[in-house]
Structure prediction request, 339 residues.
Amino acid sequence: MTTHTPRVFSGIKPSGGLTLGNYLGAIKRFVDMQGQEFETIYCVVDLHAITVWQDPAVLKDATREVAAGFIASGIDPSQSILFNQSQVPAHAELGWIFNCVARVGWMNRMTQFKDKAGKNAEQVSLGLYAYPSLMAADILLYHATHVPVGEDQKQHVELTRDIASKFNHDFKAGDFFPLCEPIIEGPATRVMNLRDGTKKMSKSGESDMERINMTDDADKIAKKFKKAKTDPEPLPETLDGLKDRPEARNLVDIYASLSEVTPEAVISEYAGAGWGRFKPALADLAVEKLAPISQEMARLMKKPDEIDAILAKGSEKADAIAQPILQKTYDIVGLVRSR
Ligand code: AQP
Prediction:
């Protein structure tokens, strides 16, 4: 029985600018896990971004912007490994092996693919369909044991466990690939769209008004929260009163996550308050928390060479962990390493 080193891996795809959902559901929690008992590896997953068409120049900018977002939020490249996926080719190599382990039936159950492909499933890229097996490779290439993600990625982490199990079983490889744990915690594991509380806030959502971008200024943030869809009722006395009020619940959860208290505590502070009081308070809080991050992001974005140098160094460190695991995988699978 192998004991795997406690190791965290997670990533964000540069398919647009970072949103408050990415921040609260992922990056803020990545920062919390840094410097604890884990080795932490964070990745800008550019190969995932291109599963949907990306303008090449925009992709480069978005890759650096996501890296800047990590650093400005508190990911310290001397404490965590920070890199972009395409620079460690072992991700794609292990991804191919996992394409041969994962079953088509498993992929057909992935709800994110169904949501993204919609009625257009015949026309989307093969890469979008195979995305979860590349994600499994991202995680298992480092023998990661813990994967902090938002709620929407839970199914993909579960698939990663299925791929690890099937590989270990089919190749009689013991517990070579660990069964990683998804870590989905806090009040903002699924930040919802500001115009429709039944949909997730996404980078690539149609309207800019439905999301808070990490680069939005104070005026924009205030305007977006002011226009956020709600209902006519004031905030209730207890959290139960937010049942069937998805937009209201979302704003309370965002407030709780930004101020690092429970949703119950928010409700007890604002019980009976109308939106005219709550929304400006939420906007002020968001500006207070996000402004220092967006200012630092803007400063970093003026120095793309510095960002690239950080990513290059991180890629080397990541590669040093990944290569022995990939080579051992080749041996297990029976691929002759002739050079
Ligand atoms: N709305 C959200 N609430 C909480 N967590 C979220 N995450 C994304 N949206 C929310 C988490 O952020 C991490 C990175 O996600 P990703 O960028 O790799 O992919 P995604 O989940 O597909 O993000 P988007 O913003 O919806 O991108 P597009 O629109 O391009 O598909 C993950 O941990 C995710 O859970």
About this structure: The domain at 7-183+303-333 is CATH 3.40.50.620 (Rossmann fold). The pocket of adenosine-5'-tetraphosphate is lined by residues 12-13, 15-16, 19, 21-22, 25-26, 149-150, 152-153, 189-191, 200-204 (CB under 6 Å). The longest strand covers residues 7-12.
